[in-house]
Amino acid sequence: MSFNLNDCKFGTNNLMKDYNSNYIMCNDSGIPKENELEEINDFQKFFNSNDKIMDLIQEDIPQKNVKNSKKTNKKETNTLETKINNKIEELAKKMNLTSSIKEKVKDLTKKVSDSKKIKIKSIESIIASVIFVECRNSENPKTMQEISTQLDIDRRAVNRCYYSIRDIIVENKNKIPQTVSGLINSYCDKLLEKDNENLKKLSNEIADNVCKYELIAGRNPNTIAATCILIGARLLELNIGKKLISKKVGTTENTITNAYSVLKDYFESIVPSEYKENIQLLEEK
After folding, report:
1. What is the CATH number of the domain that holds 231?
2. Which domain holds residue 254?
3. Which residues pair with 17 in a beta bridge?
């Protein structure tokens, strides 16, 4: 169908209606008539401006996703915190912990959780490690073995967990407790009325390493002091045995023997370098 319209931009009047696009097309050039082009340009301008709007919309979508992500993370955090607190309540009941210790365990466990070191599969071991620390802080110490047995948790798993979070849950890690140091000095005075400075110094150095590495943490300070004195006395080849030490310290020989048997695997670490050649003297007779 031809139209009596004044030429297209190429000067022809060979125009046809394109029913697909609904524009009047020039058969010679294949493009719409000039006034139709203007309509197309206006239409294009509209979409160009709307592209900017779409860009803004697209920019806003990630923001919504971030908000949703924050909500999800908050929900997950709350769920984990609830799960942890429920588990603390359960384990505290098993161990008959006081309300005061239980609340301290919750606070310290949250500190571990906030550090992102907590994992679902190790929640029980983490709580057991925290209970170990808080019982010691409350001056009602319990050994790892006692805690593991009462809570029916593998002691090795608790030990591994404890050392992985020790920097978070233990304060003054590298400092010998004043109670142990004071006991060593007092007991050495009872064991040797004179010339006991070497025994005091060596026993304190050993105790310092024992406490630093948490080798028998949770034991009674009397036990730690007595055992370190026994090691020091043997390294110095003094005539001071378990029987005499237990009598002066007020603990049993069996208690000292048990602590000594734990430490024998660590003699290389706890004995000062100048006495390492005497380690063979520490073998049980």
Report:
1. 1.10.472.10
2. 178-282
3. 24
**In the numeric block, which tokens belong to residue 244?**
């005499």
Is 84 contained in some domain?
yes
Cα 90 from Cα 99, distance rounded (Å): 13
Residue 279 DSSP code = G
Identity at 51, one-letter amino acid code: D
- Write out the two tokens for 107: 């606070």
- Domain limit, last residue, from 169, 190, 223: 169
Same domain as 255, residue 273: yes
- C-beta contacts of 269-272 below 8 A and 24+ residues apart: 269/209, 269/213, 270/206, 270/209, 270/210, 270/213, 270/215, 270/231, 271/206, 271/231, 271/235, 272/202, 272/205, 272/206
By percentage, how much of the chain surpasses pLDDT 70? 67
How many domains, in total, are found in the chain?
3
Which pLDDT belongs to residue 53? Answer: 47
Other Cβ atoms closer than 10 A to 65: 10
Mutual angle of helices 34-95 and 144-151, in 10-degree steps: 100
Query: Phi-psi category of 59—alpha, beta or left, where left has phi over 0 and alpha has psi -120 to 50?
Result: alpha
In a domain? residue 61: no
| Final residue belonging to a domain, choices 129, 151, 169 | 169
Q: Is the pTM of this model over 0.90?
A: no
Cα-Cα-Cα-Cα dihedral sign, residues 63, 69, 75, 81: negative
User: Phi and psi at residue 218, in whole multiples of 5°?
Assistant: 100, -15
7 in a structural domain: yes
Q: What is the mean pLDDT of residues 89-99?
A: 94
- For 118, list phi and psi in degrees, rounded to 5: -85, 140
